[in-house]
Design brief:
This protein is α/β, with parallel strands linked by helices. About 45% of the residues lie in helices and about 15% in strands.
Length: about 250
């Protein structure tokens, strides 16, 4: 299936590794031009090299998504580099997993306001282009009750924001969708670290996945590329759980 992403300009915040990179890579394989941001020069260089190897135009920049001014400047710089924008993937998480002031602040600053601010910055470019697509990354922790109270609450807010933005932006032909991943494992990721340092907690979650394994970033990437694509043009305001039927 031709996803119609050739030459589309797509920004992926937090796109240097894991789920973010997997979505960027899947879109690049369909011919999209990709901009990714991250916080470390090493990860940016690696992501840039891997994406350029796919034969597409690539833009990268260091950016702390929790910094409102830096995030706005990054989105604008990506749009300037590509001559406009067609898509935005809001991926980063502050992983505020504690029900504390710090846990809530991380979640609010990155998981929620990072989505709000990046979308604010991208909307004028989408309107100029006659439409666009926003993809937010939430979590199955945001769908029901979660033991990670702060994390689950901000991820639930992202799902509600997706629905509200989809309705308010539909007249501008701007689609807004969301993926709620289950537990995704990759080198250096949360579950890889937990497997090494907290094997009992890892196993407890593993046992709740009927598929008998953790998910893979590329499985999120494939769904993400579809939701950004022309065949999904009539899909908006939706949250798709990609979780192997995981039971929280």
């Amino acid at each position: 299936m031709d996803l119609g992403l050739t030459n589309k300009a797509i920004v992926v915040t937090g796109g240097t590794r894991g789920i973010g990179f997997a979505i960027a890579e899947a879109c690049a394989k369909e011919g999209a031009r990709i901009s990714v941001c991250g916080r470390t020069p090493e990860s940016l260089k690696t992501a840039e090299r891997q994406l350029k190897d796919l034969g597409v135009e690539v833009h990268t920049a260091a950016c702390d998504v929790a910094d409102a001014d830096a995030l706005k400047a990054y989105v604008e710089a990506a749009a300037d580099a590509f001559g406009g924008l067609d898509g935005l993937v809001n991926n980063p998480s502050g992983f505020g997993n504690t029900d504390t002031e710090d846990g809530w602040k991380k979640g609010m600053d990155v998981d929620l306001m990072g989505v709000v601010r990046a979308t604010w910055a991208a909307i004028p470019y989408f309107r100029k282009a006659g439409g666009g697509s926003v993809l937010n990354i939430s979590s199955i922790s945001g769908i029901g009750a979660s033991s990670n109270i702060a994390y689950g609450a901000v991820k639930a807010a992202v799902i509600q924001l997706t629905q509200s933005h989809a309705q308010s932006l539909a007249a501008d032909r701007i689609r807004v969708n969301c993926i709620a991943p289950g537990s995704i494992e990759f080198p250096g990721g949360v579950w890889d670290v937990r497997k090494k340092n907290e094997p009992e907690k890892y196993q407890a979650t593993f046992d709740k996945i009927p598929f008998g394994r953790m998910g893979k970033p590329e499985e999120i990437g494939a769904v993400g590329a579809f939701l950004m694509s022309m065949p999904a043009y009539w899909v908006t305001g939706q949250t798709i759980a990609v979780d192997g039927a995981q039971n929280l």
